[in-house]
Amino acid sequence: MLESYLSRHGWKVTSTHNGQDGIRAAQSLSPSLIILDGMLPDMDGFDVLRRIRATDNVPVLLLTARGEEIDRIVGLEMGADDYLGKPFNPRELLARMRAIHRRAAPREDADTIAPDFVTNEARREISFRGQVIILTDIEYRLLATLLRGGAEVVDREDLTRQAFDRESRPFDRSLDMHVSRLRRKLDQLEGFKGTVKSIRNSGYLLVQDEEAGGARA
Fold first, then answer.
1. Most buried of the four, 30, 75, 132, 209, by CB within 10 Å?
2. Between the CA of residue 89 and those of 76, 93, 96, 97, 167, what are the distances in Å?
């Protein structure tokens, strides 16, 4: 049903019906977007997501059982770009897919340089002192937005719009989970002494040197 519906709306769709075939298809077809069901007949959908994320940052939209918040949190922690609870309206799925596709579209090649960071919009790539940071599309947009914010706190609503191309929703922890993943990746950078700080009741701030008291951001 979804394959027929999405094909009518301009998407070229390849469907598989178990985890192993899905992993092989993700590796061989280089898709622009993966819709992944959390419940598969041969293996857990989260295991499929883990295998995909080990080698590829292709956008993944996770379908989860309605009401299973823990599934959504785990999926976001593992690198899903967005999630949708089942049952769902196909039009909402299509809207989510289009939003992800817009976020991933190449932009004009205009490198932006911040202290120690270089952002390449065309390649959707950010590096720190020559170290390319392996980022999902959501993480890339979050970090680029925080870098543009300079020493200012970027509020949650703005970060949500920039990263997810939608307004923030009550009780939605998507932003926090993606920021947590981004923070862990920055922590692994050689020579990086900063962090992404959570500012209570406001938003997030990228501090590039905590030892300097956050003077640089």
1. 75
2. 21, 7, 11, 13, 19
Per CATH, which fold does 2-104 belong to? Rossmann fold (3.40.50)
Instruction: Give me the pLDDT at residue 76, please.
Output: 84
Q: pTM to 2 decimals?
A: 0.59
Question: What tens digit of pLDDT does each residue of 140-178 get?
Answer: 999 999 998 888 899 999 899 888 888 877 777 889 999
The pLDDT tens digits of the residues spanning 23-33 come to 999 999 989 99
Residue 190 to residue 180: CA distance in whole angstroms = 18
Measured at the CA of 154, the angle between CA 171 and CA 158, to 5 degrees, comes to: 60
Q: Tens digits of per-residue pLDDT, 125-146?
A: 899 988 999 998 889 999 999 9
Name the CATH topology of 112-212: Arc Repressor Mutant, subunit A (1.10.10)
| Closest among 77, 90, 73, 102 to 35, alpha carbons compared | 90
